[in-house]
Amino acid sequence: MIKLLALDMDGTLLNEAKEIPQTHITAIHQAIEKGVKLVLCTGRPLFGVLPYYKKLGLDLQNEYVIVNNGCSTHQTSDWGLVDWQELSPADIEYLYDLAEKSDVQLTLFDEKHYFVLGGKPNEIVQNDAKLVFSDLTEISLEEATSGKYRMFQGMFLGTKEQTDDFEQRFAEELCKRFSGVRSQPVIYEAMPLGTTKATALSRLAAILKIEPSEIMAMGDANNDIEMLQFAGLGIAMGNASDYVKSLANDVTASNEEDGVARAIEKYIL
User: Fold this and answer.
1) Which CATH superfamily is domain 4-84+195-267 in?
2) Does the keyword Hydrolase apply (predicted)?
3) Cα distance between residue 261 and residue 269, in whole Å
4) For residue 108, which of 83, 131, 89, 127 has the smallest C-alpha distance?
5) Hey, where are the domains in the chain?
6) How far from 193 is each of 5, 44, 122, CA to CA, in Å?
7) Low-confidence stretches of the chain (pLDDT beneath 50)
8) What are the counts of helices (DSSP H) followed by strands (DSSP E) for the chain?
9) Fold of the domain spanning 89-192
10) Are 251 and 218 in contact (CB under 8 A)?
11) Which pTM value belongs to this model?
């Protein structure tokens, strides 16, 4: 019996227009009415989730969201932090040094800010900030490492070619110290070592006394892989890569074809 639905957002809950189809909203409400707990699990920061959560029209009392690829978990009753992992000042200095050696730009996130280091934001950073409903805050390395902010994760953004080059040159080295993932063609992400959506989901499930076998997880991208494998039932979206699909228990329709609603209907309703 499924007790918890762990749901990725971009490429899963959201269609290509970055909207939640009404079919998904209806199915989620029906699942919750059956007693299933919804946990959005996304690489987005909290401020990139709130407008969508409002559109879902859910009771805010006792649900959770896992954001920043597992770096922070919030309870929806007051959006307060219940669990988190953060970058140290030394971590930030290390990431900054890698960005300085490449053509990608380093960004950092706390609960309220989308920070950009190393000068004016490039076009890809600007576009990404719009997708998460955020203004950009330019910050110096000195201020970023001052301890004034709780920095959850870093992202390197550039063109696909620039990000390819960054990943080829630095990913192996970076992953000795961080959890690194190429989440999108133009984004490489770095979280505190050992931090993934799955680790955050595991800790939350323990608090809620829910077993992995009672969890259904859905996703489409590389940063969903650990979560799909952790859950008793991992469902890949039809728009996922063949590699992600090969690691899932089942494949549903794409995010343009009501894939989330179809999987909820099949396995929960």
Assistant:
1) HAD superfamily/HAD-like (3.40.50.1000)
2) yes
3) 10
4) 89
5) 4-84+195-267, 89-192
6) 25, 18, 27
7) none
8) 10, 14
9) 3.30.1240
10) no
11) 0.94
